Amino acid sequence: MNLPTLLRRGVLTALAVGLLAATPAAATPGSVPDNRPSAPASASVSPSHAAAASRQAAVRTARRGDAYWTPERLRNAVPLGGKKRTVPPAGRPKPRAASHPFGGYPSVGVLAMTDGQGVDGFCSASVVQSPGKSLVLSAGHCLNDEDRFKNFVFVPQYNNGSNPKPFGVFPVKPGHVYLDDRYLSLGTRAGDDYDFAFIEVGTNSSGQLLQDAVGGGNRLKLLGANDFIQPNVHLVGYPGAGNTPLDCVTTTSKFNARFLKIKCDGYTGGTSGSPFLANFDGRNGDVIGVIGGYQTGGHDPNESYSSWFDEDVKMLYDTALRGGGTPTDAGIGDAATWKHATDVTSGRFGLQDTSDLVVKWSDGEVTLYKGNGSKGFSREIQLMPPNALWRDHAVEITAGDYTGSNAYDLLVRWTDGELTIYKDVDENQKLGSEIQLAAPNDRWKQAYQIATGKYGGNGWPDDLVVVWNDGRVTQFTDVDEKGLHDEKELTGANSTWTHAQAVTGGDFDGNGGSDDMLVRWSDGETTIYRDIAGQGLGAETQVLPPNGNWKEAKLVTAGSYSGSGPADDLLVIWSYGKVSLHPDVDLAGLHAEHVLVRP
């Protein structure tokens, strides 16, 4: 018996009777420190006093913003964001709606800010309804470098008349500007589907919340694929020439199958972030878009565009409502911590119908995150404290019901080729019951990727698909405590499958039959093989073409994280520490991304 096996038969016994029952210990020498946040200490000030102090601080901040943004400074601020031309292109007259200057609306205004070079600038923005009454909507391309901004405020119904700040100014809360990560990573061209942003502001100098001051906010409205033609839509914004607000009313249309388009005169620089308002009554309406998206809103000042307001906008809105946290505000750590995740697997590690997540960390710690059924997690449970055994010798983990007890087990492949099962893992049992599935052997040292699923067999999640180092792919059916059974070759040795970087099983085709297998390849391409059942790999469907972004998808696992339905929610851990969830993945694609941990 070689060293890893001796360690497991000796050290692991000590761990089972001692460390598993102990409180979390310090990391072993040379391990990665645990960066996950601890619970905050109890406040020494009463909640009422703390709230009063917070309100006073917000008022002081608003007074400083009021003092800085004098009427003259606001008039002289320059447009930020898009590159809209100041004159229409010659030789292409097109019918469009006239716009007219006016005194402004309470729910529309300007975001004013000083950039890193000391230049005062602005974009257009609008109030959007929220429970906290403090949310503003604008274009992503105005705000993708928020750290450089100073004197950062929202001025509702700004105008250059006798009362230019009728409601005062509302300072932007530091760290409360929310943009889609895909817009930040892909940039203004490739990421133009996500050119929108939400901003949370504090009170004005009178201590009023934004919606209370202006009399409500616009309702966020998503558009279906057939909803792009909307009549009587107001486009309201602030062009750079004189900063006088413009209003235009016309019918919108669809452009390039994914942008909302409107033809209105004179929307030059400064109008980035201007809201498209349907069902508008002069104070509030349904906001269905903002100037942004295609060519950062369009280069022609008489034609403007918006990214499609679909579920991506709703997810970012929800993130802003949570202040950037997870759906439960429980928190699952930061990107610096998640860079140290070395393997993940999904399963029902308890009595609930939704999936949980087991993570192995680079210091040998193993933890369980309990799913809340709403695309997030409620709490973290330590299954194994940091230790050298799991750090150095546990190569891969996967989960399924191999023991037939209707509870998920954890299967581990070790460096010496041994396979072991930890039976009925949950927050109480933890990793206390180990069963040897295969003794140490040279063959299993050559395994490359393992994915558990219901691949034919008896309908239980107890079948394994294994990718080997030579590119062969085989399937084991009905794995149980007695061992590995009925191996079938799905494809022979080949060079293609040596490029499979991450695999996971799930029900992506929605037929409720045999599980499918999702593969992320070395060039970023992602494909699904349908209905794996021991008779070859079956039909392949591409859900993502080769791309640089998905080369960074380090770990993937599929589960039922958004409810009690099929295992078709794809959780991804990225090389740079981001953690994201794609609910309801199917053969048509990955669809929306729900970011749990931001990079």
Any overview of this molecule?
The N terminus is likely disordered. The protein has a six-stranded antiparallel beta barrel with strand order 3-4-5-8-7-6. It is an alpha+beta fold and 599 residues long. The chain is built from eight helices and 36 strands.
Would you spell out the secondary-structure blueprint of this structure?
Blueprint: H1 3-17, H2 47-68, H3 71-76, E1 78-79, E2 99-101, E3 108-114, E4 120-128, E5 135-138, E6 150-156, E7 170-179, H4 181-190, E8 197-201, H5 210-214, E9 219-220, E10 233-237, E11 246-250, E12 253-255, E13 259-263, E14 275-278, E15 286-290, E16 303-307, H6 311-321, H7 335-338, E17 341-347, E18 356-361, E19 366-371, E20 377-384, H8 388-393, E21 394-400, E22 409-414, E23 419-422, E24 434-438, E25 447-453, E26 463-468, E27 473-476, E28 487-491, E29 500-506, E30 516-521, E31 526-529, E32 540-544, E33 553-559, E34 569-574, E35 579-582, E36 594-597
Mean pLDDT: 85
Distance between the termini: 44 Å
Give the strand content: 25-35%
Main sheet, how many strands, which sense, barrel? Answer: 6 strands, antiparallel, barrel
Low-confidence stretches: 1-45, 325-330
Rg is 28 Å
Walk across the major sheet and give the strand order: 3-4-5-8-7-6
Number of strands: 36
Count of helix runs: 8
Helix and strand content put the structural class at: alpha+beta
Q: Report the helical percentage.
A: 10-25%
